[in-house]
Amino acid sequence: MAACRKWFVIGIVFGMETALAAEYRRLCESPQTRQPLAYLRLRRAIRTVVEHRDIEPGQALPSERDLSQALGLSRVTVRKAIAGLVEEGLLTQRHGAGTFVAERIVKPMSRLTSFTEDLRARGLNPRSEFFERGIGEVTPEEAMAMNLSPGAAVVRLHRVRYAGDEPLAIERSVVPASVLPDPMLVRDSLYEALERRNCRPRRALQRLRAVSLGAQHARLLHVATGSAGLSIERRSFLDDGRVVEFTSSWYRGDIYDFVAELHTD
Ligand code: GLP
């Protein structure tokens, strides 16, 4: 706990970092949130202050050295905390300049997360406007994509997805009614609704294509017709191999970065 006390003092000295200091201290002291691993504690404190906008998008984080000195942690520990948040897309690193809170929405491709989770992790407020939230019969194309029998019932969602007032994406999702019997079970988040039914997807296949947005999509996304966009198709699976969603999305190209980590083996 010595490290926590030291951080408290430093927090008073560095005005801008007071919120981070306070959050770190809270995590050290509260029995409910106490996290034995220092790098996870620091990661959580950074995530919270970014979500609360105590450190704004585009603003720099204290240097690795300052953080490690202030907290009495090794630089390896601080680096590990930061690396995880860079991988999540919450922070970005510019060579020689330091670590910053990400301004564009950087979405790591290897993690199966929902739109709602991606935005909340960046301190943004996810919201949806529904154009369709109903139940119907599967089309031949959907039946092929989802391994469903002709005539099977499916839930259909057609939504514009917002961060606050800013439209970011349009999504059309199809979910077997055997998994989600009532479309009204989806309030803001499809994945939360699936989670409540113990049917959250475990694996997904995703296809991305660059597109120029047609008039209708461009109007809904508040951009000019022909603007760059990303078309994404996701098929997600349960542990037992059943397809749980088939979603086609159109994202604004000026706001989203999709990042993939590559390995040699
Ligand atoms: C992303 C994916 C969709 C998925 C959605 C779920 O946007 N591209 O395939 O359906 O997340 O998000 P939420 O749970 O916020 O509805």
From TrEMBL:
Domain HTH gntR-type, first and last residues per copy: 36-104
NADP as UniProt keyword: no
A Pfam family recorded for this sequence: GntR
Keyword Aminoacyl-tRNA synthetase: no
One GO BP: negative regulation of DNA-templated transcription
Molecular function terms, GO-annotated: DNA binding; DNA-binding transcription factor activity
Superkingdom of this protein's organism: Bacteria
Keyword terms: DNA-binding, Transcription, Transcription regulation
Protein name, entry field: GntR family transcriptional regulator
Native species: Frateuria terrea
UniProt lineage: Bacteria, Pseudomonadati, Pseudomonadota, Gammaproteobacteria, Lysobacterales
